[in-house]
Amino acid sequence: MSYDGPIEDRLAIRELIESYADAVTQRDATGWASLWAEQSRWLMPDLSTRLEGKQTIVSTWIRLMAEYHGPVEEPWAFSFVSVLGAMNVIGGRATVRSYSLETFADGAGKSTHLKGQYDDVVVRQDGRWLFAERVWRLMPLDDHAVFLA
After folding, report:
1. Residue 26 to residues 52, 65, 78, 147, Cα–Cα distance (Å)
2. CB-CB contact of 70 with 77 (8 Å)
3. Would you call 143 exposed, middle or buried from its count of C-beta atoms within 10 A (0-12, 13-18, 19+)?
4. What's the pTM value of the predicted model, to 2 decimals?
5. What is the pLDDT of residues 99-129, one digit of tens each?
6. pLDDT tops 80 at residue 70
7. What are the structural domains, with CATH classification, of the chain?
8. Which residues contact 73 (CB under 8 A, 6 or more apart)?
């Protein structure tokens, strides 16, 4: 897969991916929630997690952010970066691959780094591109053994 489809759509989808990374780093639950379609799925096979429906996805994300990423008052303790790898837009649907890098400090101040791959399906609804499905898999990194423990 390379980069195929209208440039306007590809730019809007790039902004969707970048908005996701910004909302995660800023811990902006409202902004993050606005990026998902109502009938969406978020799959994390390495964590044996399958979430269906926007409400379930958002409430789980809020809990995970609080559990793993510390208090919102310490935003410097967490960062999330996304890099696009491929995109194929056909009409109002697109498949996208991106890579993520996360760094955060746990409650004891130990830094953890996560590297992953997202395989997404995004859809255009009411003129906006939204996530219909995100599948996140961990990529090899020494810190992952600690995170999965």
Report:
1. 24, 11, 9, 21
2. yes
3. middle
4. 0.88
5. 999 888 766 677 788 899 999 999 999 999 9
6. no
7. 3-148 (3.10.450.50)
8. none
